[in-house]
Amino acid sequence: MIRTRHRIVALAGALAAATAVTACGTDSAAPGGDAGPPKPGGTLRYGLSQAPTCSDPAQSGTNQTLYVTRQIVDSLTDQDPKTGELKPWLAQSWEVTPDAKVFTFHLTDGVTFSDGTAFTADSVRQTFDSVLKLGAAKAALAASYLTNYVGTTAVDRLTARVEFSKPNAQFLQATSTTQLGIQAEATTAKPAEQRCLGDNIASGPFTYASYRQDASATLAKRAGYQWGSAVFAHRGEAYLDKIEFTVVPESGVRTGSLASGQLDAISDALPQDAPQIEAAGGRVLSTANPGVPFGFQTNVTRGPLRDPAVRQALLPAIDRKQLVDTVLGPQFKPATSPLASSTPGYQDLSARLAYDPVKARGILDQAGWVPGGDGIRAKNGERLSFSVVFSQVFGGNQAIIELVQQQLRQVGVELKLDLVSVAEQTAKQNSKDFDSSYGNTTRADGDILRTSFGLEGRNLNARGPIPALDDALNGQLSTVDTGVRTGLVHTAQQQVLDAGLLIPTVELSQAIGAAGTTQDLKFEASARLQFFDTWLSGR
Known about the structure:
Shape: globular
Oligomer: single chain
Number of strands: 27
Strand order of the largest sheet: 8-9-10-1-11-23-12
Low-confidence stretches: 1-33
Mean pLDDT: 91
Strand content: 15-25%
Radius of gyration: 23 Å
């Protein structure tokens, strides 16, 4: 076992694969002056662009859901958004065997859950065991982090040993995520559906005061909270008394409510909203999401997308710069790889994704797809047409896909839009009832490629073995050598494009509108909001 603190930190850095992320825009004061020292008290009113899908951190998937659930749960570790370094939280220190199969966590004493029960090594075991019971259909990300999980042993009250049957180099970083946040037995013993009702018991700086599915959530400050992350800017309790989350789907209504003082912060502030927000004394905070960028994940068993040539032709058929310039604005970037540019292990593959409609037409011509009278191609009586299932988890999704629809038509491809709810999209994904599925997945670790494109698990592409890709995805999970792991992540990105498993479009950025009185609203390493240090001035 690795015993010295120096070696622990060194191996933690290797396991995190140099997880530096480029978060930015975390303001501390209103424009035009110093807001002074933080003041406790007050209720922050936040406008979500979409409803939270579930109150359970383990089952959280969308950013709007994670903005809520991140506040009620603590994790074993935290990831510094500036450096990517893993820092203590519920675990004061940890040791990892050189083969990355056994992780031993030394836990913080004196931590309690909001029902008064003590946090112990058994809490870690119960939480991780319950994730596996939820399964990939309910907790896809959380379950993927526990691949090859053998079990957790309570060595003593404050020592938890987590074991895997195979190397799991990504696990240490995974312990910083919301999805593996620790919850009390009162919650982990419940079935999946009952864990979504807003009565989750955890040890975080806030607790649920009320929760109405698809409508609102109110969080209250946890009195006596003293065990915050080493990344947090202050110790003790959170400053805010309450956070009121309401769902405001229409962008113009969210912006108007912020500008008029009815809300203190809002999600998905679009470029056209910025002048109104700034005129009212507010500002737009932004940060780039690491992980898999937005794109079309193809079902390789259905329709024209069965043809690898069609999938290859789609890569140069999309003008990604036009998507950013027309729909999103300067805080967003075109996708240049199956990983976002802020992700550890990212490789710039922009040459593979350069807009070249002539090239796209040539690939389709060579594959025998012939333009018809209306311009849409066909081959052996089959029309070059496929649909995309998507939801409005991000405000710009529909406009982006509609513009892609126009671009693809120029090369003879018909794209049909299937806008559904988040729950309906998940159901279609689980049953493979789609031609392509549009979305993104955020995580500050290159292992997100395994989660999204691995043969085991959900396998949304419904693909068979691809030895070069499978070897790279499994290999990066098995090595703690940063250089080797990065090389394997590079190979995986290339293979994802080679197989046409993802047709990337744009990188997601979080753009948050904040009133001038909202101070220290911060992003954590995975670009989700952290309200622990947030406070309100001028009230």
